[in-house]
Design a protein that fits this description.
The chain is built from five helices and no strands. With 138 residues, the chain is mainly alpha-helical. The chain has one domain. Helix 1 packs antiparallel against helix 3.
Length: 138
């Protein structure tokens, strides 16, 4: 009984977390697409401003966000989509670690590393919860 309640709690967290992180990706993608200069000035100030490149990156965030929202309603999608999200965030953290001193303003470099690492950790935790669900359901 307690195991069943714990599994249900993990499932609720994984479900809600997948939706929340999916909506966050969509929000970031929309911000980059609709107001690339605003995004660049707020948290994307690495190197020269390139509106086209920011809109290109927004397409990935939008696609990932939509896939996560679909995974919210389709549990069979959850683990594969969370793996993609975790890998993207982990690679993104490494990229920002390499360029941490190149941000303008300077506080953005460390902020981006930390926020991306928190995002990667959130995806990892949801992935663990989702993988546990798959193992326990066969």
């Amino acid at each position: 009984m307690a195991d069943s309640m714990e599994a249900n709690g993990r499932e609720r967290v994984a479900t809600a977390g997948t939706l929340v992180l999916g909506l966050a990706q969509i929000g970031l993608g929309l911000w980059m697409a609709a107001a690339p200069r605003s995004f660049f000035d707020a948290i994307g100030g690495f190197g020269a401003y390139n509106e086209h490149y920011l809109r290109d990156v927004s397409t990935f965030y939008l696609a990932l966000g939509i896939a996560l929202v679909v995974a919210w309603r389709r549990p069979a999608w959850r683990v594969p989509v969370l793996w993609v999200a975790l890998l993207q965030y982990a690679f993104h953290v490494v990229n920002h670690l390499v360029d941490v001193g190149d941000a303008h303003p300077g506080w953005v470099g460390p902020f981006d590393v930390i926020s991306l690492a928190v995002g990667a950790a959130a995806f990892a935790l949801l992935l663990i919860a989702g993988a546990h669900r798959r193992r326990s359901s066969g």
